[in-house]
Amino acid sequence: MADAQYNKRVDVLIIGAGASGAAVAWSLAETGMHILCIEQGDWVNPLNYPSTQRDWEMAGQRNYAISPNVRKLKADYPINDEESPIAIANFNAVGGSTILYSAHFPRFHPSDFRVRSLDGVADDWPISYFDLEPFFALNDQNIGVAGHPGDPALPPHTPTMSPVPLGTMGETMARAFNQLGWHWWPSDTAIITRDHEGREACANIGSCNVGCPKGAKSSADVSYWPVALRAGVKLRTNCRVREITVGPDGMATGATYYDDLGVEHHQAAEMVIVACNGVGTPRLLLNSKSPRFPDGIANSSGLVGKNLMLHPWGNVQGLFDHPVDRFGPEGSCMLSQQFYETDASRGFVRGYNMQITRGRGPVLTARAALWRGELPWGANHHTVFEKLYNRTINLGICVEDLPEECNQVTLDPKLTDSNGIPSPKISYRLSENSRRMLNHGLARGVEAMEAAGAIRTDTVGPIRMAGWHLLGTARMGADPRTSVVNEWGRSHDVKNLFVVDGSVFVTSGGVNPTTTIQAVALYIADQIKKRLANLFD
Questions:
Q1: What is the H or E stretch that residue 319 is in?
Q2: Rounded distance between C-alpha atoms, residue 402 and residue 115, angstroms
Q3: How many CB atoms sit inside 10 A of residue 9's CB?
Q4: Strands ordered across the beta sheet of 408-416
Q5: What domain range is 355 assigned to?
């Protein structure tokens, strides 16, 4: 196909087909505009997921590892995260990182949008929880969210279907939280517990984090993209964008990209929407240099790439003397937000979420025990193994990460991807506030495990390979001097350029951000639709 025809001008060009890009594409499809999404990865065939194979645990350490530096697939780009105690996790494909996420789906709290007003730190968002509330509900309906209404930690909302089963694991921890007098609730989870929109309900296989072959986990490739494509959105895969181009009037004109064969193309567009996550988006913006934008497009504030937030993560594992239901959704069945809001007596501001997840599978259980020197070879091997497997519960600590300009994404001066595009370099440190919060959370986690009857506890934190929440590097705000995009995602500098992923977050909250990312993306899409008549005035 000739280049001129293949890259015919479109009304809307979306860069990235993950959680936010898919949601925006679906929402804007009703306008009838010619919408094209470019994705550097490809469709992943569910039949090829490791979860369909007997060696699924080991595949999760290789081709389906959460780190692109481990996978090194064609769609990946290397990331220099040597100057960070937390390594970056992402996945490049249609559906993005939702292919490998646990589908834990808690919402941000109203307080997360008012941190400056309430606690005197960071900044307030230019929008509120209640601005996003209808889009949280819309997202729940679109993808199918399981949960239980009535959580006292949040404003009232009703998930679309019943929660994933607590099982012995959840019941064990629920009794412990009750004994301690701490909040707990069945988690909102993006896993369908009944058939929904042509997808079958969860079968409790328990290998969610290496892809769900049933489609019960609501990754963007099986929830949003089929509907968006039927509505007329076009999706072009295996296309890596190098830069967003601008015209003499300072407006975005489209994007230059490489196809699967390494051939360079230019896709012209009236509007460009970036949805490449909190590392990929600043990388693209910083690399989009021109005489008009010598420091990268949309970067007059100098804040593109800065204020990176990663959610330092801790884990407490409890070992029990009885089976605790290894099988079931791999992510959280329940959470506790007892320590989510600020309490000055704890010695830090803001708070954290505690979430209960299952223990390791058989292979990783055995490997960890061998590494610790407690699993012998020979006659006692199976006897010892049986005392370890299906007898552990994990309690994850998701620490709210406050924004700091020194935590940032820049372009590495030497490292590039296979197309010669500069790779992102991560410079990140834990603040003293985060360290105190993490230590507090680990101590409370041990307390909870002991109350639950654990015969041994092990703690770790911050976990190195836990940079799966990438936020804050193109923050939204009303003031162009202190933000990259405005309150509805439009660049202050380029009127037809929008950012819709987690990089627009002003603060990180203390929970997994995917549902809030998608709610923000749907909100921005709604604002675009309301302003179509005079969008670029």
A1: strand 313-319
A2: 10
A3: 13
A4: 80-83, 422-427, 408-416
A5: 3-534
